[in-house]
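Support reply, case 0932

Customer input (verbatim):
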Amino acid sequence: MAKRRKNHRVARPARRTAHPTPNRPVIGLTAVLLGLTVGAAVVGAAPASAQVAGETAGTTRTFTVPAGPLDRTLGAFANVAGVELTADPALLQGRSSQGLSGRHSVSGGFAQLLRGHGLQAVRDANGRYVVSRKAGPAQGPATADGAAVLPALTVTGQAATVTAPYAGGQVASGGRVGLLGDKDFMETPFSTVSYTDKFIEDQQAKDITEVIAKTDPAVFSNGVSGAWSENYSIRGFSSGTTDVTIGGLVGMAPYYRTSPEMFERIEVLKGPSALLNGMPPGGSVGGAVNLVPKRAGNEPLTRLTTTYMSDSQFGGHVDLGRRFGADKEFGVRFNGVYRDGGGAVDHQDKKTKLGSLGLDWRGERVRLSADLYHSEDRVDGVTRGIGLAPGVAVPSPPEPETLLNPSWSYVHNKDEAAIARGEFDVTDDLTAYAAAGISRSQYAYNGAISAQVLNAAGDFRTTIGQLGFTVQKISGEVGLRGRFQTGAVTHQWALNATRYSDNQREYGRRSVAGADWTTNIYNPVWGPAAAMVLPPTLHTETRLVSYGLADTLSFADDRVQVTLGVRRQSVRTDNFNVTTGALASRYDANATSPAAALLLKATDHVSVYANYIEGLSKGQTAPMTAANAGELFAPYKTKQKEVGVKVDFGDFTHTLSLFEIERPGSYTDPVTNIFSFGGEQRNRGVEWGFFGSPLEGVRLMGGVAYVDPKVTKTAVAANQGKTATGVPKLQGKLGVEWDVPMLPGLTLTGNMTALSKQYISADNALSVAGHTVFDVGARYAVEAAGRPLTLRGTVNNVTNRAYWGMPLLSSLALGAPRTVMLSATADF
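Our regenerated output:
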């Protein structure tokens, strides 16, 4: 007799600075956020199930559920409708739905989503909807309206709907949590958020930073446009673009900038993640970003988006999806992007090209997929940072359209990758998976690599350099995820092994003789372009191998969950002589990192969690100038302790977390001349965030974060206890969308980002002022010739605020000026 598994819900029931004076813009935004969300919480706290309970057969509401896998669309509809839904996953596996749009009753909505599948959703005596096969003539008597009466039914299993869109459609209800697999955010003992492709489209985002830094107060971006790389930090620590993963595989994303059109979700896990993901090549510890490729839906998709961005950049995006086979088991999804033209910064042109192909096959127990892409990103007139000479104060920023780099400067990135993944359900309680990918990146840069302001008048001297590299990366993972019972304890265990390797060759000149000159930040004048010459400078090969094991133990009807795990990591880096090719040096070290997490489901609407988790970053070898020259240091561990609470009203969620992250740092002692990892930066902070649709036609997302980044150990005694550079202590963000009831289809949007000052010198003598930036926009969804058409318009930095941001590798860079973005999306 087949073993019965415990019933699980597909969808939950509705749940309805260093200055003594704080930064005023952030305090003002905090007050606004508190007022909005407290009011929304009061309204949203009333369970939507109460509304549903009172509905009659004729009661209808407006629903919009995108097409996709049947389990996902059903879960999304149930969340929005505020009802509980259960189903046997075997009934839903491999099926898709064309989605839902318009006014429907709850039962009518389910009928529309299930049309053509021989399934029905019937409400039982407890108000719960149950999916089952439609009863035939011999299966039971019929009611007066012709609907068959269901025989006794036992619902088993759990449909995979944890990544269905949450209320409002801007974020998903869950996402990938490393080797633990996909988890609902209310059952994840970490701080996570997963942005949907709808949010990406509506933001008209051109890179990953424009998605993750828009409304999350834990993510800081300097706001620079057209830099040589994306740049963001999470919880006060820089997070490298080289550590972004695709489908959990490290090294497969574009090296420095990623256009997001080929992805259906962008997932952010805040804090270190060595157990969950292994050690990233770039050593990021503040958080992890994972990209989930798009898959074809059950219904054919032909979508064209045309774009414009000030001042003269035009582009287009084609999105095609088809499924084939008797059960539509084979899917093809293609995305193509082209953009080219001048940007809002004077003398700056941007060009983007992307082609991606996503293939997948869905069987009863086997799922296979492959992703291929080629992308190019070029910026002419690169935004590059500047520094300050000793004794020079921070100057007033010039006009925000000013380019502080020669107009002939450029950065050119080319990236391509091929990824394959397979999953096999060995039994109902055991899944095996494997993934592998190969990628190649090429980079070239010609322009200023450093600049220094010399006086209060704004004169500055530039140093012209030329850099390039090629890197080939191979990444893979294999693993098992399973479930078993020991008495009253349920175990969800995971075991995986990861391997990453790269071969990188660098070229260039750090200073081009005769190409340096002095100009002024308020009226820069440049000399002729320097001829590009790229002699070889470095050849390295890196290999990362790790093994991870985790077990989540669930007690008391899954209301108490304890996750324990450990990962063993090894890292080897070989440096070769660029002339002879001989091995010059080798770094080979190992580390073990444990983790533990606790989640308490206080109620169906409240989860409390705590975790201890570590991050791993590659150690170093003591330099030849040190007394302990050549000493090898193991990968250093960043340690996080965090507690938090998540409150889900069904259509509006609040999260609150307190954390402490301690990251070691290296230095050479000025007295003993011994190199060590004796330094430390400690970030303590509190984050409050919210997302969802607290009122019909209103969507809110944002929050406030405070972080205190202290340098707790350093070689310079005078700097000990100072605030770390480049991190605002206070950030507040608010994104608002309002569907105008007087004009159906029209949505007004707004976004506000406010942050406090940032120190730019280790002794805290120099800082840049905090600022507030406003964005406004609108979109209009209509039908043209019987086809859906969405028009979007946004103005970023609507007041054209000039401000300094702190970029990678230097002290100051200008934030982006007022930028107009327009787009039109049509389905054919």
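We compared this against your earlier run and they match. Two observations from our side: Helices lie at 24-44, 48-53, 70-81, 89-92, 106-113, 197-203, 209-212, 274-277. The chain has two domains: 1-161, 301-827. Please reopen the case if you see a mismatch on your end.
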